[in-house]
Amino acid sequence: MAKAATGKPMIKVLLFGRLGELHSSSSLDIKLDDSIKTAGDVRKKIATDFPDLGRALDEPQTLVALNQEIVDLSQGLANGDELAFLPPVTG
Known about the structure:
It is a single chain. This protein is 26% helix and 25% strand. By secondary structure, it is an alpha+beta fold. It has a 5-stranded mixed sheet with strand order 2-1-5-3-4. The relative contact order is 0.26.
């Protein structure tokens, strides 16, 4: 993923299952800055901007993947990363 036109580093956030339905889109781009350095920071930003989605992301069974590997919320981020939130699945 290229840097934004402003030159700020960005990541792509993927929202799977009902998380994408709550946002009306399965992805969004987030600019990295001094306040957004970890997966947890992204979750906080999303919760601020989209409260319903934020509540769903706070569910303890929601998994976080960075570049297709499961990580915890303390994981650091870099320009061009792909961060995915995966809701719990029932069968």
